Amino acid sequence: MKEAVIFDLDGVIVSTDEYHYKAWKKLADEEDIYFDTQINQKLRGVSRLESLEIILKKTNKTYTEEEKENLAQRKNNYYRELLKSLNHEDILPGVLNVLDALKEKRIKIAIGSSSKNTGTILKKIGLDKIFNAVVDGNQIKNSKPDPEVFLLAAKALGVEPLKCVVIEDADAGIKAALAAEMKAVAVGDAQSNMNSSYRLSDLTKIDINKLLEDG
Ligand code: B16
Ligand code: MG
């Protein structure tokens, strides 16, 4: 049986993915760059600057590194403005029950997110004290699909990667989990990802024994 569960944040615990979309869309519109929900799918789990590079593929304009930093900062300001209204009720369906069930079974729980806003988000939704470890975009050099964030989370928990399960909503996150030799569970937008061993539409449908079984 697995000994720890590592949760992605954005798209698994809370739907901040919608806020990311709105903030990038505002920036893209201001810069006159085409951006839609399909392009947005490619940004799931990917770092802020890498997301910007994906968006800039739709323009012939060239930006200096400094201008790119400014664009990313502008997007983050829009995003943080949207985060102000976030609260406990924004926690996605099923999440609190899963966390309770895992705590009861003494299974360790962690966050493994690419977001540098993880601390703010966890505080806003009132989950800043419940996880045994939180690893986020501030602690890693390489974002998903690189396994770094999940390997660091396993290390912080003191659990071997083979004994960890990752719950993810992004293809980049599923790849990262598998590269870390962890079991990958796909929810929401990643549920069609056939590389994951357990796929479900949301966490209300989860079977805790199936989540924790080896394999
Ligand atoms: P930030 P996750 C990721 O969070 C998001 O899915 C991705 O869209 C975002 O670009 C990335 O965090 C960086 O976020 O701009 O807040 O540092 O899914 O890994 O929890
Ligand atoms: Mg995500």
UniProtKB/TrEMBL annotation:
Keywords: Magnesium, Metal-binding. CDD domains: HAD_BPGM. Pfam families: HAD_2 (PF13419). The record marks S113, K144 as: Important for catalytic activity and assists the phosphoryl transfer reaction to Asp8 by balancing charge and orienting the reacting groups. InterPro entries: B-phosphoglucomutase_hydrolase, Beta-PGM, HAD-like_sf, HAD-like_SPP, HAD-SF_hydro_IA, HAD_2, HAD_sf, PGP-like_dom2. Substrate binds at residues 8-10, 24, 43-48, 51, 75, 113-117, 144. The active site is at D8, D10. Belongs to the HAD-like hydrolase superfamily. CbbY/CbbZ/Gph/YieH family. This is Beta-phosphoglucomutase. The lineage of its organism: Bacteria, Bacillati, Bacillota, Negativicutes, Selenomonadales.
